[in-house]
Specification:
Elements (H helix, E strand, L loop, with lengths): L1 E10 L2 E11 L4 E5 L6 H8 L7 E6 L2 E2 L5 H8 L2 E4 L11 H12 L5 H15 L14 H14 L5 E5 L7 H14 L6 E5 L2 H7 L2 E6 L2 E7 H6 L3 H15 L1
Parallel strand pairs: 3-8, 3-9, 6-7, 7-8
Antiparallel strand pairs: 1-2, 1-4, 4-5, 9-10
Helix pairs in contact: 3-4, 3-5, 4-5, 5-6, 6-7
This protein binds adenosine-5'-triphosphate and magnesium ion.
Length: 247
């Protein structure tokens, strides 16, 4: 369970989040929507304790993380599988080493054979086992995103997934495949928070939508309410859908 309790956050004089409050259960499928620069990535960074609120509290599984040490935060992060914006893979390493890197970080006693079979297992889950020896630049955008997801799974047995713009920059078919993968991985009551501006993909995967505008939560509700919301910025987002349907 994630709770934001009256969270304020700024970068210098730039106020990013203003009095944000919400709570998300670990089995929920949530999308945080909002335009560029609205603070979507910042919300994920706050959940992971990578940045701290200026005021307000953040609770993860009942524990206030705002005053935790770096060692304690590492434990908190183990609850999550995290796919950063654009995948953030290491271009100088091949697919195997990108995934193995995280496994080594978390499990220093693994033999090379164990490592190899674990990497293969993770790549199989996301459907790119055949690419194991390829360099990142040899992969399509969709495959890179899959490798990034495999790498995020290496970290732990996550209770929840956090995805930052998982379908951005992908063609509609690859974006749809990533949506399906996200849904598959979220079985067994493991929910997710996706932050994105792609409302079309968000509607495919999430049950709950939180909309950020000017640092505030201006909407928090289900799909039916979102499509009917009488909020100008949400209506603008929905025009993407009207456009897709009308052509
Ligand atoms: N390290 C930083 N130092 C200063 N300002 C930052 C920093 N990181 C982000 N910002 C600013 O904070 C605001 C929110 O950033 P954030 O990355 O959370 O937005 P976002 O909603 O994820 O945007 P996008 O859709 O473009 O990914 C932006 O205006 C950004 O320029
Ligand atoms: Mg972002």
């Amino acid at each position: 369970m994630i709770i934001f309790d009256n969270v304020w956050f700024n970068y210098g004089s730039h106020q990013i989040l203003k009095d944000i409050s919400f709570s998300v259960n670990s089995n929920e499928r949530v999308t945080v929507l909002g335009g560029s620069g609205e603070g979507k990535t910042t919300i994920l960074r706050l959940i992971l304790g990578l940045v701290k609120p200026d005021s307000g509290k953040i609770f993860i599984n009942g524990e206030d993380i705002t005053d935790k040490t770096e060692d304690e935060l590492r434990q908190v992060r183990m609850n999550f599988s995290i796919v950063f914006q654009e995948g953030a893979l290491f271009d100088s390493l091949n697919v195997k080493e990108n995934v193995a890197f995280c496994l080594r970080e978390y499990n220093k006693t693994m033999s090379e054979d164990e490592l190899d079979s674990k990497v293969r297992e993770l790549l199989r889950i996301v459907g790119v086992e055949d690419a194991i020896e390829l360099m990142i630049e040899e992969l399509s955008g969709g495959m890179q995103r899959r490798v990034a997801i495999a790498r995020s799974l290496a970290a732990s047995e996550p209770k929840m997934f956090l995805y930052d713009e998982p379908t951005s920059g992908l063609d509609p078919i690859n974006a749809d495949n990533i949506c399906k993968l996200i849904l598959e991985l979220s079985q067994k009551e493991r929910g997710f928070i996706i932050v994105t501006h792609k409302v079309f993909d968000a509607l495919k995967v999430a049950d709950r939508f939180i909309f950020l505008k000017d640092g505030e939560v201006v909407f928090d509700g289900n799909k039916e309410k979102l499509v009917k919301a009488d909020i100008p910025d949400i209506k603008l987002f929905m025009e993407e859908l009207d456009f897709k349907i009308s052509i």
